[in-house]
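Sharing a chain and its predicted structure for anyone who wants a worked example. Both blocks are below, sequence first, tokens second.
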Amino acid sequence: MEAIPSDNKATTVPDGGFNFLTPEAWKALLSGYSHVVLVANSEAVDLERLRSELPETALYVFFNKVYKVLDEPFVGHSMLVARSDVMGAHIVHRREAADVLRFFGGDDFLGVVNIRVSVEENLSEKSCFEGAEARHLDLTQMLADLYPIGKIATSGFAVALWLADLQLPGNILLAGFSAKRSEKWKVFDVHDWTFEQIFLRLFARMGSISMVGGVDASPYSALAKRFPEVPPVEIAMTAAEVLSERLDNTNSQIDRLMSVTKFIRAVDNFFRRFKPKTRKQRFLDKSKG
């Protein structure tokens, strides 16, 4: 495996148990890679195919519960993004750090990047990551006036936007960013998946990033080729009209389902009151007290 040189010691900003880097230091650290591949925790990821098509100088960035896409230790240049919540990094307060970090190791592992994207989230000290090299990244200011109010950005979206702003010489590639729920893994309603998909696809069309199975697979691009005489705005308005009608039909079916499942939901809500509180809920109750 080809070594990727990096030297960021001179531009590291120490802060007690935290390890913040300047934008210049991050750029110096990541500029040696030909590709920076963000690997979503999705069944849409074909990691074996990606690795066969990309050079050994690619850096693969994984997120949180990597066992969703890895079933054996990863060999190659890699980095782990650990998302935080109010109690700190997820993998730390859920006691999953050792289970997750066992998939990485050696000189090709760049370490852990503990990130937060909202002011309610708290970072974990670098000593919490089982001896792995740990860095910290606060993206709250970058997203404050950008992301829809009332929603929280996904880790993948936040990191993709941050990387694009760094203007790295290598290519930024998003793998598995489908925003689709599968039978195995769910998507969370706290994120604005529609906004993120629009934003990322516009970024891809501008050439700032690339998406595996994203922009290139869009069926609507074929409409513009088939009807070159029709202005793009007309195609967009027609598509919006059709989608609006389909959404209205879907909402009607959802209303019907809500009525049919009313009794089931009432029973479920009743028994949920007896469910023991999670560590996070107890932590929040204690903080309020």
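Comments welcome. The chain has two domains: 9-218, 223-288.
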